[in-house]
């Protein structure tokens, strides 16, 4: 993975250099055709957190700093990233001061100032606005305008990682003059603004058709007079991933297509036509099996799948958890469903490098014999039907996930693998909108977890895992008391783990934070709170004539669209 | 006839109210959540807030009444204002039905989608009819000839092979291999001169072909059956005995009588033009009303789904009435008094 990223970065850098020399003036390369098969609904990421909407908007509005393809912060609208060393972050870690680059203009020609930044915070933090990126502003006490080009964010608690607000595609700056009358409950009513925000990005909107297509033209006030190379651009939506891949790789009608989660076999076949290139990058997404540590049996009634229901009849046995993990041939799962976009993993926190543990790899070894031995040793004996049981408890698993062809194929393979160690599996799939919907009245949500094992992918925005790792705190277990909210699906609870989370919240030094994160990862994986399966990458494709693409999993894939050029 | 029309129209009002209630209740009770498709990185507390701002905190009957008010009073007023350029009351304060995904008024979205749906789906319906009628006539007149056999075979294929298959086959042949036609429909294309007209024709060819084949297959069977019914009637023998030319017998006497049931079938099919062709629109990215509906369903954009399905319901009720009336006009033997 590391090698792969380095390789990718290297190639991208060469491409970028080549592009810089080839490119002479703004708008000289004609038209750029981008395809997002999930159509863009709105260009205001504060009102829609969907990835397609956030990325579509990233062509127009920008944050103060972005993440590059290696996960490093790069300045966008500021001169440098504030740190404790350069005095930008206060010693007590309770404030961060951003210095805006001089002379920046909005796409309507007015100057970009600190007032716009402060207004953006006010817009998102309005209690009645329903801002979908409010998590980016966690613990923000106030955002003050020091002078026209300086803005200071004050936090209510020390923030070892103060780069939540205004960093990354989910937290861009909107123009005060345009959105002034759109705060709070009026936010959704400003259709014109939400469909055509003024921005500082490389392009500006000329026409917006919701759930269909967005037309752009080069922003005449963009900070780099030579960019973007394309005069106009289209962001088309609709259809499905496979046909999106076809339009790049086979018909060549489009230049860039996003999120091509297609069976690797089909994708490779299309790529053979030679019209386009498949690119991938890896962020923090891990497809995992979460094991229910509590008893989900229906006869527990209202307390099923809660701590009160007591421990799980067989998943509470560490031998069973370990056997389940090592009896899965992860390489086979990758080959069948993911191809270049997946890597077998034993870690729940596989990236960024600083936080990624390398200590756990026992599960990568696919070993049915060892799994069988573990179960035999623990006293789980095969019955007449080949299924193991102990004291009347049969190893029979209900395994649920969301409806999705790759997931169902994975389920079928895993069922087969578990069959070989004498474990019976019943498969179930639930529509994604219901499964992830979190409706407390529905019995089928992933939070309620009325099953033994469930599978899905999760990740975290940006590069700091603190909040993500805090999701396995004892206090984060979903239960009727907290309305089934909470990220601790396995109902895992360990004092040691909780202590590490507390320690991380007080540690500012990056290396030390990395060490803590690794320890937490190792506990989760070794204890078998969950079974990490596949480190999932993002797959996109671009035409061979498009240069400058630096595939990015940490920010919008279109983060450097200003640097894209047409090959001569 | 007028009496009958009025009676039917009055009866349509309670029917539509019941339909609107069923649609609203069904979608409301269905286990679905507008925040379900958001990335998991958005925490559950924020999701709860989002649901509140979408108005999901209100009880069911209040939301239903709001929706009825918006659909039957506010939106028609807006359309009237738009058409006549006038302002009725305080129009900027009037609540509109807003889509949850785009936050824009649902009616505006629907109006934006109309042109491409009417062009592609409507055109395919017209082409389908133009193919079906002659094929049906010849097939019936020369029953069991090679033309009839081939016609039967082709319509069987057209009827039974799903559009998602024919669509992809056509793309693979004409877009990937031959590169004659684009596989992606450009909704922003404006026809201003011959070259843009040609581009419009080229991008319509594949989706229209797929749908026209399907429509023609269905209709040609109707025409054929109806022609066969009439060809054996006594009045045909009389016409021939009078010394009418075969062409006159066929095209004037038989065809006119045979078209009566066909016209009803065509009228009943018109609402399906408006509901778009969900699958074909997805394949060719025509992004018309069908695609709007499917995206709304996937994203649990309930106000949009409710409004669209209800508009389809209104069209179906309306065209049922029209079909009945047309039948009465075409066939004077039928009286509704």
From TrEMBL, chain A:
<dbReference type="GO" id="GO:0030288">
    <property type="term" value="C:outer membrane-bounded periplasmic space"/>
</dbReference>
<feature type="domain" description="Solute-binding protein family 5">
    <location>
        <begin position="82"/>
        <end position="473"/>
    </location>
</feature>
<dbReference type="GO" id="GO:0043190">
    <property type="term" value="C:ATP-binding cassette (ABC) transporter complex"/>
</dbReference>
<feature type="signal peptide">
    <location>
        <begin position="1"/>
        <end position="24"/>
    </location>
</feature>
<dbReference type="GO" id="GO:1904680">
    <property type="term" value="F:peptide transmembrane transporter activity"/>
</dbReference>
<dbReference type="InterPro" id="IPR039424">
    <property type="entry name" value="SBP_5"/>
</dbReference>
<dbReference type="GO" id="GO:0015833">
    <property type="term" value="P:peptide transport"/>
</dbReference>
<dbReference type="Pfam" id="PF00496">
    <property type="entry name" value="SBP_bac_5"/>
</dbReference>
<dbReference type="InterPro" id="IPR030678">
    <property type="entry name" value="Peptide/Ni-bd"/>
</dbReference>
<dbReference type="InterPro" id="IPR000914">
    <property type="entry name" value="SBP_5_dom"/>
</dbReference>
<keyword id="KW-0813">Transport</keyword>
<protein>
    <submittedName>
        <fullName>Peptide ABC transporter substrate-binding protein</fullName>
    </submittedName>
</protein>
<comment type="similarity">
    <text>Belongs to the bacterial solute-binding protein 5 family.</text>
</comment>
<keyword id="KW-0732">Signal</keyword>
Automatic annotation (TrEMBL), chain B:
<dbReference type="InterPro" id="IPR045621">
    <property type="entry name" value="BPD_transp_1_N"/>
</dbReference>
<keyword id="KW-0812">Transmembrane</keyword>
<keyword id="KW-0813">Transport</keyword>
<feature type="transmembrane region" description="Helical">
    <location>
        <begin position="197"/>
        <end position="217"/>
    </location>
</feature>
<feature type="transmembrane region" description="Helical">
    <location>
        <begin position="310"/>
        <end position="330"/>
    </location>
</feature>
<dbReference type="GO" id="GO:0005886">
    <property type="term" value="C:plasma membrane"/>
</dbReference>
<feature type="transmembrane region" description="Helical">
    <location>
        <begin position="9"/>
        <end position="27"/>
    </location>
</feature>
<dbReference type="Pfam" id="PF19300">
    <property type="entry name" value="BPD_transp_1_N"/>
</dbReference>
<dbReference type="InterPro" id="IPR000515">
    <property type="entry name" value="MetI-like"/>
</dbReference>
<protein>
    <submittedName>
        <fullName>ABC transporter permease</fullName>
    </submittedName>
</protein>
<feature type="domain" description="ABC transmembrane type-1">
    <location>
        <begin position="114"/>
        <end position="323"/>
    </location>
</feature>
<keyword id="KW-1133">Transmembrane helix</keyword>
<feature type="transmembrane region" description="Helical">
    <location>
        <begin position="118"/>
        <end position="141"/>
    </location>
</feature>
<feature type="transmembrane region" description="Helical">
    <location>
        <begin position="153"/>
        <end position="177"/>
    </location>
</feature>
<keyword id="KW-0472">Membrane</keyword>
<comment type="similarity">
    <text>Belongs to the binding-protein-dependent transport system permease family.</text>
</comment>
<dbReference type="InterPro" id="IPR035906">
    <property type="entry name" value="MetI-like_sf"/>
</dbReference>
<feature type="transmembrane region" description="Helical">
    <location>
        <begin position="254"/>
        <end position="279"/>
    </location>
</feature>
<dbReference type="Pfam" id="PF00528">
    <property type="entry name" value="BPD_transp_1"/>
</dbReference>
<keyword id="KW-1003">Cell membrane</keyword>
<dbReference type="GO" id="GO:0055085">
    <property type="term" value="P:transmembrane transport"/>
</dbReference>
């Amino acid at each position: 993975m590391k090698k792969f990223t380095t390789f990718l970065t290297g190639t991208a850098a060469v491409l970028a250099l080549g592009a810089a020399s080839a490119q002479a003036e703004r708008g000289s390369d004609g038209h750029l055709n981008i395809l997002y098969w999930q159509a863009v609904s709105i260009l205001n990421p504060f009102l829609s957190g969907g990835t397609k909407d956030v990325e579509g908007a990233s062509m127009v509005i920008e944050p103060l700093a972005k993440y590059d393809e290696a996960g490093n912060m790069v300045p966008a609208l500021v001169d440098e990233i504030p740190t404790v060393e350069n005095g930008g972050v206060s010693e007590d870690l309770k404030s961060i001061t951003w210095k805006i680059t001089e002379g920046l203009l909005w796409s309507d020609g007015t100057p970009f100032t600190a007032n716009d930044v402060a207004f953006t915070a006010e817009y998102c933090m309005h209690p009645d606005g329903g801002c979908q990126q409010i998590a980016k502003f966690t613990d923000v006490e106030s955002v003050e305008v020091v002078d026209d080009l300086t803005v200071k964010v004050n936090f209510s608690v020390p923030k070892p990682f103060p780069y939540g607000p205004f960093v990354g595609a989910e937290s861009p700056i909107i123009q005060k003059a345009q959105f002034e009358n759109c705060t709070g409950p009026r936010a959704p009513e400003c259709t014109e603004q939400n469909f055509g925000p003024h921005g500082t990005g490389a392009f500006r909107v000329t026409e917006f058709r919701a759930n269909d297509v967005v037309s752009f033209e080069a922003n005449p006030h963009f900070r780099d007079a030579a960019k973007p190379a394309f005069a106009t651009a289209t962001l088309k939506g609709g259809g499905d991933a496979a046909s999106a891949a076809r339009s790049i790789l086979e018909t060549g009608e489009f230049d860039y297509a996003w999120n091509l989660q297609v069976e690797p076999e089909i994708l490779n076949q299309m790529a053979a036509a030679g019209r386009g290139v498949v690119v991938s990058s890896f962020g923090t997404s891990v497809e995992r099996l979460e094991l229910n540590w509590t008893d989900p049996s229906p006869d527990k009634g209202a307390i099923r799948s809660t701590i009160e229901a007591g421990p799980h009849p067989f998943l509470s046995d560490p031998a069973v958890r370990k056997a389940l993990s090592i009896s899965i041939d992860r390489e086979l799962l990758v080959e069948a469903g993911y191809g270049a976009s997946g890597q077998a993993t034993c870690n729940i926190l596989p990236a960024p490098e600083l936080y990624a543990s390398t200590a756990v790899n026992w599960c990568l070894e696919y070993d049915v014999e060892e799994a069988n031995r573990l179960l035999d040793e623990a006293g789980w004996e095969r019955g007449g039907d080949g299924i193991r049981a102990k004291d009347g408890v049969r190893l029979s698993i209900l395994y649920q996930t969301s409806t999705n062809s790759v997931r169902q194929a994975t389920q079928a393979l895993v069922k087969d693998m578990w069959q070989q160690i004498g474990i019976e599996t019943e498969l179930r799939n639930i529509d994604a909108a219901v499964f992830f919907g979190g409706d407390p009245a529905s019995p089928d949500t992933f939070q309620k977890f009325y099953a033994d094992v469930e599978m899905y992918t999760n990740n975290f925005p940006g590069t700091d895992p603190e909040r993500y790792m805090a999701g396995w705190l004892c206090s984060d277990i979903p239960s009727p008391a907290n309305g089934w909210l909470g990220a601790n699906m396995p109902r895992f609870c360990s004092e040691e783990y909780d202590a590490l989370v507390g320690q991380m919240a007080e540690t500012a030094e990056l290396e030390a934070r990395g060490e803590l994160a690794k320890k937490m990862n190792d506990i989760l994986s070794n204890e078998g709170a969950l079974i990490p399966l596949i480190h999932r990458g993002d797959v996109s494709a671009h035409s061979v004539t498009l240069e400058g693409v630096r595939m990015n999993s940490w920010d919008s894939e279109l983060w450097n669209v200003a640097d894209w050029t047409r090959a001569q | 006839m007028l009496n009958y029309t009025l009676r039917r129209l009055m009866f349509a009002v309670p029917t539509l109210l019941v339909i609107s209630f069923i649609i609203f209740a069904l979608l409301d009770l269905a286990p679905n959540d507008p925040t379900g498709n958001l990335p998991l990185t958005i925490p559950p507390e924020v999701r709860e807030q989002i649901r509140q701002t979408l108005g999901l905190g209100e009880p069911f009957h209040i939301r239903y009444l709001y929706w009825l008010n918006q659909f039957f009073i506010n939106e028609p007023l807006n359309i009237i204002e738009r058409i006549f350029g006038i302002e009725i009351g305080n129009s900027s304060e009037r609540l509109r039905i807003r889509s949850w995904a785009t936050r824009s008024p649902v009616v505006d979205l629907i109006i934006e989608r109309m042109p491409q749906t009417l062009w592609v789906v409507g055109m395919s319906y017209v082409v389908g009819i133009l193919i079906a009628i002659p094929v049906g006539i010849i097939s019936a007149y020369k029953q069991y000839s090679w033309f009839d056999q081939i016609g039967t075979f082709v319509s069987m294929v057209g009827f039974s092979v799903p559009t998602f298959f024919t669509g992809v086959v056509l793309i693979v042949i004409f877009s990937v291999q031959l590169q004659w036609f684009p596989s992606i429909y450009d909704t922003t294309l404006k026809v201003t001169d011959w070259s843009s007209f040609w581009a419009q024709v080229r991008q319509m060819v594949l989706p229209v072909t797929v749908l026209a084949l399907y429509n023609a297959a269905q209709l040609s069977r109707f025409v054929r059956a109806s022609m066969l019914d009439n060809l054996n009637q006594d009045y045909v023998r009389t016409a021939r005995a009078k010394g009418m030319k075969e062409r006159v017998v066929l095209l004037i006497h038989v065809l006119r009588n045979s078209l009566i049931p066909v016209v009803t079938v065509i009228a009943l099919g018109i609402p399906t033009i408006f509901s778009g062709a969900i699958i074909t629109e997805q394949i060719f990215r025509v992004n018309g009303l069908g695609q709007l509906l499917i995206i709304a369903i996937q994203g649990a954009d309930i106000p949009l789904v409710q409004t669209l399905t209800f508009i389809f319901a209104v069209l179906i009720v309306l065209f049922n009435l029209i079909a009945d009336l047309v039948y009465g006009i075409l066939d004077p033997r039928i009286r509704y008094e």
